[in-house]
Amino acid sequence: MKIDFSRIEIEDIEGNKVVVDVSKELGNMMYLGAQDIAVADLGHDIYHEKEVEQTKEQAKWVRGYVEKGFKAILKRSLLPMLEDKD
C-alpha cells in the first residue's frame, strides 16, 4: 500500500476537510525512536519521500507509532489507512 503522509485529510470539529502534512513528525518519531534499523529506515523514507509504499508489516510499525504519538483527530484518518485489508 502507498500512503502520502504529506497529504492526510482530516475533518475539523465543524466538519470541514483539512489536508495536513504529518511526514516530518511521523518520520522523525520513527527514526529517533526505533530500536530496529528497518523501522528507522522507514521513518527516514517517510520524512524525506513523503509518499511511501509499505508492506503489511511496515504498516503495522507505522500504526504503532501513530497510536502512541498522535492525537485522536489524526488517528481517525491514519489508522483506517494502515489497516490490514486482506
Keywords:
globular; 86 residues; alpha+beta; two-stranded antiparallel sheet; 4 strands
Given the structure, what is the number of helices? 4
Biggest β-sheet strands, sense, barrel: 2 strands, antiparallel
Q: Could you give the count of β-strands? A: 4
Mean pLDDT over the residues: 93
What amount of the residues lies in strands? Answer: 15-25%
Radius of gyration: 12 Å
Helix content: 55-70%
Query: Class by helix and strand content?
Result: alpha+beta
Structural overview:
This protein is of the alpha+beta class and 86 residues long. It has one domain (2-81). The protein is 56% helix and 16% strand. The chain is built from four helices and four strands; from the N terminus they run βββααβαα. The chain has a two-stranded antiparallel ribbon with strand order 1-4. A two-stranded antiparallel sheet has the order 2-3. Strand 2 (8-11) and strand 3 form a beta hairpin. The protein is globular, with a radius of gyration of 12 Å. The mean pLDDT is 93.
